[in-house]
């Protein structure tokens, strides 16, 4: 769990980063390119580069699409500080108008992290992400999990809100809920398959991290490393997908699946 290329805030990103890095490594080998050539990666809603910059440090070329000028400015600064400014490009846009700013079918991998919750039509959002892929591409999808929200509201003593989230078709616990959509693993895999991809893997993310008191992780010797290992072990088990704060789905085009 000590990969130096892993993004910061490893407790929240470790599982996704490990799956994503392995998927990108497989694509490099499958394309037969030299490792230094790298892949073309699109990061939709990539913000200030939490994943884009580490991906660029692996040698890939990353295009980040985000609606926030401030986030793109922070991305530019972070990429420069990491020495990968030549491999990271930020453009202002969103998932709905994706092909107003990027090429259709021009990417080996697409990251769609924290986007699907905020689009009006999740199926359209996934469809655009898939349409950006080359015939042998991979999609990394990360979205808010319904069960994790229900559990966190209940543990905080907000039982009515927990029940409302459980019953609401969009998984919202009330009018002041800042997240428009939450998903079950079945819903996300259905969206990915509906867009024509094969589901290669499903992982629960932040199964325990959001429930464990921060002071325990910060002060107990070895607690962070042990929690990271616990998260990694639970992430692959379907039983824990229903209580994860986030869900990660790795999808592959038919060409990538056959490679």
TrEMBL record:
Alphabetical keyword list: Methyltransferase, S-adenosyl-L-methionine, Transferase
Keyword Ribosomal protein: no
Pfam hit, one: Methyltransf_12
Record CDD domains: AdoMet_MTases (cd02440)
InterPro entries linked: Methyltransf_12 (IPR013217), SAM-dependent_MTases_sf (IPR029063)
UniProt GO molecular function: methyltransferase activity
Gene3D superfamilies cross-referenced by the UniProt entry: Vaccinia Virus protein VP39
GO biological process assignments: methylation
Entries under SUPFAM superfamilies matching the protein: S-adenosyl-L-methionine-dependent methyltransferases
Domain Methyltransferase type: 42-139
Protein name (Swiss-Prot/TrEMBL): Methyltransferase domain-containing protein
Source organism (scientific name): Streptomyces spongiae
């Amino acid at each position: 769990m000590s990969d130096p290329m892993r993004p910061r805030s490893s407790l929240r990103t470790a599982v996704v980063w490990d799956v994503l890095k392995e998927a990108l490594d497989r694509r490099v080998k499958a394309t037969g390119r030299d490792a230094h050539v790298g892949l073309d990666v699109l990061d939709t809603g990539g913000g200030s580069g939490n994943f884009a910059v580490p991906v660029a440090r692996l040698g890939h070329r990353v295009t980040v699409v985000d609606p926030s000028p401030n986030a793109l400015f922070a991305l530019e600064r972070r990429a420069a500080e990491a020495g990968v400014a030549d491999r990271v490009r930020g453009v202002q846009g969103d998932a709905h108008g994706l092909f107003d700013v990027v090429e259709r079918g021009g990417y080996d991998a697409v990251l769609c992290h924290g986007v699907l919750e905020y689009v009006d039509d999740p199926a359209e959002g996934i469809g655009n992400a898939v349409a950006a892929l080359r015939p042998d591409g991979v999609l990394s999808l990360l979205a808010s999990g319904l069960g994790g929200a229900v559990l966190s509201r209940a543990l905080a003593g907000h039982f009515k809100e927990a029940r409302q989230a459980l019953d609401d078709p969009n998984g919202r616990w009330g009018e002041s809920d800042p997240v428009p959509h939450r998903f079950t693993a079945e819903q996300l895999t259905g969206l990915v398959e509906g867009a024509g991809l094969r589901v290669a893997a499903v992982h629960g993310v932040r199964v325990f991290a959001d429930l464990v008191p921060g002071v325990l992780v910060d002060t107990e010797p070895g607690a962070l490393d042990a929690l990271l290992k616990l998260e990694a072990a639970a992430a692959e088990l379907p039983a824990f997908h229903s209580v994860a704060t986030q869900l990660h789905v790795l999808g592959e085009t038919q060409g990538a699946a056959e490679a």
